[in-house]
Amino acid sequence: MSTELEIAFVLGTAFLWITVTLTILSAIDRPERKARRQERRELRTGTGRIEYRPVAAGSRPQGRNRHPRARRLHLH
Question: Where are the transmembrane segments (predicted)?
Fold first, then answer.
């Protein structure tokens, strides 16, 4: 065998070994990642909803000099 062919064989074998190893590791970790993703989704949907209640009539002062408060979203 020539030197170039030996080098190509070694590099091809190394590439194949790395590809197979990463594929196996990815397949092993996939169910655990899926379970974690579902758990995070359940946590977000469970506590992320805000229930709005209607304001009772007459509970806010009526006046033209009062400025309404600007509503802003706060990131958590």
Answer: 6-28
Rounded Cα distance between 47 and 12, Å, is 51
Dihedral sign from CA coordinates of 9, 12, 14, 16: negative
Coil vs helix vs strand at 6? helix
Output the tens digit of pLDDT for each of the chain's 76 residues. Answer: 699 999 999 999 999 999 999 998 888 777 788 888 888 888 887 765 566 677 666 666 555 555 566 667 666 6
Q: Is the pTM of this model over 0.70?
A: no
d(CA 6, CA 25): 29
